[in-house]
Design goal:
By secondary structure, the chain is α/β, with parallel strands linked by helices. The protein is built from ten helices and six strands; from the N terminus they run βαααααβαβαβαβαβα.
Amino acid sequence: MKEYKAILFDCDGVLIDSEPLGCEALARAVSASGLPMTRDEATRIFSGNAAQASIAWMRNAGLDAAAVFGESDRILFEMFDRDIPPVQGIEAVLSGFDLPMAVCSNSAVQRLDRSIARTPLAARFGSHIYSAEHVAAPKPAPDLALFACERLGVAPEQAIFIDDNPHGVLCAAAAGCLAVGFIGPSEHRQGHAQVLHDAGADHVVHGMAEFRELLSRLLLPLAA
């Protein structure tokens, strides 16, 4: 059995259940700019995108992307001030395995500072909370996974990378990590498990209980 020595986590939708909040904030910001948008529409258009893809969509729609993102961040950070909900079951995963872990997110450093870094979960990662701003290219490029592995001192093939979007799965696969697609409690996209498989996921899990079971099989000597 291959020996795995680290776990890399996407943030939104994997560690914290923030995808609905982020899409609601974007919908409200886009609507305020003059283009009515629902949260469901924002989810379909923006969920899982790298920032440049979202910026390109807004520019094509005739919107001032910087202004929309600024308003979206303002709304989202107000939401985070009230509550930053963890994904159900994530605490048991983080405490159940004694090996290095890192956050690998396409989100900006500022957003990570206002979200995951302010939760009790952050203590499990120490300084290993990484944004796409730390590397040359965001997911789906392999840069972020490779960067985190280097910082953790492990080879990419020794790392397990879990993400709820195909961009993250593609990043993990391109880097040589074991790619795990995650279907979280707020996931509503039809056929999303197949999308993750098609992106190259070695495994797709539904909920953190399934991920913990998978880790227990892969990391049996390290299971609590």
